Amino acid sequence: MKLVSAIIKPFKLDDVREALSEIGVQGITVTEVKGFGRQKGHTELYRGAEYVVDFLPKVKLEVGISDDLLDQVIESISKAANTGKIGDGKIFVTTLEQAIRIRTGETGEDAI
Asked: What b-and-e string marks burial along 91-107, b requiring 16 or more CB atoms within 10 Å of the CB?
């Protein structure tokens, strides 16, 4: 099992959710986060004063999947979240040792 975490632009969330649903991913966790990478924030003008916005709003998706879905999930997120501009985000993949469904007690891939 794998845990796929993706940091994307907020307005791409619906596109990514639909793309994941199309390949059979049943559940995702979404968190509103702030951060920066190479984009390093930007400057804005407010009432004539210029100020720096260091941390940009992003959305973090997390999805637990079986190993055989990994390539499809990565491809779906990459295509749906891509704008071709700086700040599109990143995808991280980690090994998921155990998953337990609290309601039924199912474990492993049955819990996903």
From this structure: eeeeebeeeeeeeeeee
| Letter string b/e over residues 52-62, b meaning 16 or more CB atoms within 10 A of that residue's CB | eeeebebbbbe
Domain 2-111: assigned CATH number: 3.30.70.120
Q: Where are the domains of the chain?
A: 2-111
**Per-residue pLDDT reduced to its tens digit, 49-108:** 776 777 889 999 999 999 999 999 999 999 999 999 888 999 999 999 999 999 999 999
User: How far is the C-alpha of 28 from the C-alpha of 96, rounded, in Å?
Assistant: 15
Which amino acid, one-letter code, is at 48?
G
- Distance, CA of 96 to CA of 88 (rounded, Å): 25
Q: Which two tokens stand for residue 9?
A: 């632009």
- Of the candidates 53, 110, 64, the one whose C-alpha atom is nearest the C-alpha of residue 87 is 53
Residue type for 19, please?
Answer: A
pTM listed for this prediction: 0.86
